[in-house]
Specification:
The structure is a homodimer of 312-residue chains. By secondary structure, chain A is α+β, with helices and mostly antiparallel strands. Chain A has helices at residues 2-15, 53-56, 62-65, 170-178, 184-187, 194-200, 221-228, 261-271, 287-304, and strands at residues 80-82, 87-91, 99-102, 107-110, 114-118, 121-131, 145-153, 158-167, 212-214, 232-238, 246-253, 257-259. Chain A has nine helices and twelve strands. Helices cover 25% and strands 23% of the residues of chain A. Chain A has one domain (2-279): Carbonic Anhydrase II (Roll), CATH 3.10.200.10. The radius of gyration of chain A is 21 Å and the shape is globular. In chain A, strands 1, 2, 3, 4, 5, 6, 7, 8, 9, 10, 11 and 12 form a twelve-stranded mixed β-sheet that branches. Chains A, B: Belongs to the alpha-carbonic anhydrase family. Chains A, B: The chain crosses the membrane at residues 287-309.
Amino acid sequence: MHLSVQTLFLAASATRVLASCAHGTFLQPRAEEGGEVKVGTFGYIGTIGPLNWAALETANMVCATGTRQSPIDMAGNVFTLLQPADVQLTVNDMPDGAEFENLGTTVEVITQGGSLAVAGKQFELQQFHFHLPSEHLDNGTSQAMEMHMVFQSATQEIAVVGVYIGIADGAAAAAAKRSTRIDRRQSVSTAPTTLLETIFSVVDQIAVPGTKVKTPPLVMSEVVDLVKAQPFQIYSGSLTTPPCSEGVSWHVSTAKLGVSPASFVKVRDVIGFNSRFPQNTPGQPNILMISALGSAAAAVAVAAAPVIAPPA
Amino acid sequence: MHLSVQTLFLAASATRVLASCAHGTFLQPRAEEGGEVKVGTFGYIGTIGPLNWAALETANMVCATGTRQSPIDMAGNVFTLLQPADVQLTVNDMPDGAEFENLGTTVEVITQGGSLAVAGKQFELQQFHFHLPSEHLDNGTSQAMEMHMVFQSATQEIAVVGVYIGIADGAAAAAAKRSTRIDRRQSVSTAPTTLLETIFSVVDQIAVPGTKVKTPPLVMSEVVDLVKAQPFQIYSGSLTTPPCSEGVSWHVSTAKLGVSPASFVKVRDVIGFNSRFPQNTPGQPNILMISALGSAAAAVAVAAAPVIAPPA
């Protein structure tokens, strides 16, 4: 029976094409170039939301049972700090622009090459997409957004680089625009990141799920240089979307990007809300299992209660 | 047994003093004036988080079983629109400042009088506090923050006025500061609200849960005039914190307040994250009950799976 469940899991994963964090990986292959944008069947609210993902597909079982699920609160005791020298990160520029898709569950940029080399493993960049508000908590603190750069190895392992995005100050933005020399280190959390401003400048053109647009030319070095200059908080977690597969190598950057208030409103009005609730500490029981026990006990108490009190 | 559970529920509610949305109401009376700030025992992450509130206290059972729980997605079909003329809202200014407390689960301003009169009922203002990111979703869209003004009637009914807070643009903020004549309607979502800037100017002084500070003088008319000039989206829901009591009259404002990026960072660094996940559509089964069934099925499948496959 163990084998059957496993087989079912793999079969279901391999045959479905769903829009999610795994989009563009072996778990959820993309449509061919020029093909239609596939829209996700899961969501973030109600019965298709993260509390019920396991019930949507047999393949999603681990969403409710896995003990190393993401996102988590990046508190001091759950991650290892990886120094910049131990990571090689490259992302190709996209001088002709990139395909930018609305998958219903996120907005995603299809990349044109890039790699992550860490601990002797090599991963190839597939895409990056956005969550709003942030999925990981930065030591208990919600961030405005989070960017996920999704990599896959030749052996189909998945690594994700997560980068928090804060709201840039309009005044700082104006100053940065006027200045020809930008001190990047100082502007990390206060000035808008040009890459994000460029991408989000066309996000209103993909307001409808299933649509796509070509971005203006994208220069990736600004973000890559920022991210690879700072340590990463690493841990072994999962996809934050169905099928919630585990064994994902998370690299949460300690560098932060910025988005201008105007661009934030634009992308927020398209994304809406796509943040999975914080999962339990890695290695602890899935919080949905704990919740189910507590809820079941409550349900039994309610069900057992007669409407009319028995005679004393 | 029905009566015993009810009695237990009421007894537990009446005898405990917890920091929450119900703080300052009959459910969770405040300490006397000048008393210590009581810090909440629930939280937003892991086993003390919203997926497990029902298991923390018998009194919290309805968090997992209630069918009219808050917050919800304020989509078109779940609320009634209440016109401004049908609501009387007043909030007293606080010329000597107000007590501003860190309850661990939120930061809260203790008010000094105010009332809400609606549908022939009269409610008295107890306090207002903040959630980050927003708890309600504005037609599927997450907002940066949400302010909850909590009112209680003489018969101990609770009404809450919820107001979304967006990130104000720094440029707009600077312009508003320079201008002596502010067009309130235009500035709703782009300029910072003076009341919020004033309150949050001292939020870093209550970074530690259990501490309090006196705010500068608070003029309430700016916010009250804005809010009472726009329709409310009303529905019958619950407290968004334990004990999740239902029968709460929600009035979600269609006016929005603004917070400057700098003040947002200040208050975010104190609050961290205190947003309960979106609940099911009012009248539908509690999403934790639905989740428990799905999770239980998944758990059974995992538990039933032998490690070694049986011979064919």
